[in-house]
Design brief:
Helix content is about 75%, strand content about 0%. α2 packs across α11. It is mainly α.
């Protein structure tokens, strides 16, 4: 990779200690663009496919089931390869950061392609969607996500400073992305764009373009101090040997199991959020229900910025996270028992997110401890390989869960909304297809351009599937995650192990 990165611009962070400028620009502002784009896609890309492009019936309902799963197989392969490449990248700017810089334009271009699906026959649409989806997720976002996720583990060995960076790293995802996706989108943007394809393309193009300069900022204001300790050193290990190191360590296996279960629960929740608020708890794009669920439930995340890390330092990252998941399961149960009661759902969401605070803010610091433990155990760092497995779980579950969720919708009989120019045309369509509008036609208000979006009343089967996906499943995942964490006690010895690693470096 030497020629590709021969003329890398120098980063702005050169100090041995983590600086405030590094925290704010490298870990808070820099990742904001790409992470916001990904957060919007996680919540709304499937809505674009089902409601705007009306792809649910394509290939007898199988297209939106099969294509995400197949795509994530490709994504898993590229993640392994990307991890292997990162571990063999040697530059004066580190091994992961150079790939951040390369990912910036790639993420922007491929994200725009996701939405510019041509007006053509179903085959052309299907091919465009499959190609653009894999260009974004299997190529461009894989490069960004792999390198971005390694910034905290490679930033420093100081566990306190690393924990602080982990918190800053999550503020962007949880607060900035959360506020926009949870508040601005359902209240303002979604009612404005409805199912108008042109408006969707404009919106997503703006978000994609904003991500480019911000990702460049992340490159300039981060530093790989851990990589610098072993500059020029090659692990000399094959991919098979690296995987053996990883999968013979109990802590890594437990954390991967933890992340797998957590990702499945979160993906079902994220995918079903819009559908749950549109059909079970509220009405289609009413601008209020989704905002209340997301914001009231997300308020604890703001509190967590100040509360979680002091608690983690006092009681341990593992212990605080484990107790949190018990609370998380209780909150989810409240929502599941009363899925149509807005007040109780909001209470349950608040409780659930209080419980989810530790996991949201300190998991990457705990993962970094496990990477240091691996280095102590084998005297080799395999950050890229370890992160590739982490990312494979993330991306594979996106495909699997998206496919399963779409299959649930198709089997249950989900009916997408329609877009018409007036109520008369809508009434004719409903009568011809034997459908019932969710809201009486006379009560609907057209958008500024006169387009009328009409949502359908869903069956009890559809609503049950959506409800379990959003609030039921996480009762079980919360309990399972608490049990797994009982066995992750890496913090007990990490200080001693880091001291031994330092002694080895000094002797060498």
């Amino acid at each position: 990779m030497g020629k590709l990165f021969d003329k890398l611009p120098a980063g702005k962070i050169r100090t041995d200690d983590v600086t405030p400028r590094e925290k704010w620009l490298g870990y808070l502002v820099g990742p904001a663009g790409a992470l916001l784009l990904n957060a919007v896609l996680a919540t709304y890309l499937n809505v674009y496919y089902t409601d705007v492009l009306n792809l649910t019936p394509l290939w007898g309902g199988l297209f939106l089931t099969v294509f995400p799963i197949v795509s994530k197989v490709i994504d898993a392969v590229t993640n392994v390869y990307m991890g292997y490449i990162i571990d063999r990248t040697r530059t004066r700017e580190g091994k992961a950061r150079p790939w951040l810089l390369l990912s910036a334009p790639l993420v922007t271009i491929t994200a725009i392609l996701l939405f510019t699906v041509p007006e053509a026959n179903d085959t052309v649409k299907a091919i465009w969607i499959m190609v653009s989806y894999n260009l974004f997720y299997s190529f461009a976002y894989t490069i960004f996500n792999m390198s971005h996720n390694l910034m905290v583990p490679l930033s420093t060995r100081d566990t306190t400073a690393r924990g602080g960076l982990s918190v800053f790293n999550q503020i962007t995802t949880i607060m900035m992305s959360g506020i926009l996706v949870a508040l601005v989108f359902p209240m303002v943007i979604m009612p404005m764009i409805g199912v108008d394809k042109g408006k969707w393309i404009t919106l997503m193009s703006v978000l994609a373009i904003v991500a480019l300069p911000l990702t460049v900022v992340e490159y300039f204001f981060t530093r790989e101090r851990v990589t610098a300790e072993s500059a020029g050193e090659d692990t000399g290990l094959s991919l098979k040997a690296q995987m053996k190191m990883i999968f013979t360590d109990k802590y890594m296996i437990l954390l991967y199991a933890y992340f797998l279960i957590s990702t499945v629960g979160s993906m079902f929740k994220n995918l079903s959020l819009v559908y749950y608020c549109n059909y079970v708890l509220g009405t289609y794009n009413d601008g209020i229900t989704q905002m209340l669920v997301s914001v009231i439930g997300g308020v604890p995340m703001g509190i967590g910025i100040f509360a979680v890390w002091p608690l983690a330092r006092r009681f341990g990252k593992r212990n605080v996270t484990m107790v949190g998941f018990v609370i998380y399961a209780v909150g989810s149960l409240v929502c599941w028992l009363f899925p149509t009661n807005l007040v109780l759902v909001l209470v349950g969401q608040f409780i659930k997110n209080i419980g989810g605070l530790p996991s949201a803010y300190v998991f990457m610091a705990l993962f970094a401890d496990c990477l240091d433990h691996l280095e102590w155990k084998w005297d080799k760092r395999v950050d890229g390989a370890a992160m590739s497995v982490y990312n494979i779980i993330a991306v594979a579950m996106v495909g699997v869960v998206t496919g399963l969720f779409n299959r649930l919708l198709a089997l249950a009989g989900y009916v997408a909304p329609i877009s018409t120019v007036n109520a008369v045309q809508a009434a004719d369509y409903l009568a011809a297809h034997g459908l019932t509008p969710q809201v009486p036609l006379e009560a609907l208000k057209p958008a500024a351009d006169g387009v009328l979006t009409v949502a359908m009343q869903q069956s009890a089967t559809v609503n049950s599937a959506i409800t379990f996906s959003f609030v039921g499943l996480e009762v079980f995942t919360g309990v399972a995650l608490a049990v797994i964490l009982l066995f992750v006690d890496v913090e007990k010895r990490i200080g001693k192990e880091q001291a031994e690693i330092k002694a080895r470096r000094e002797q060498a």
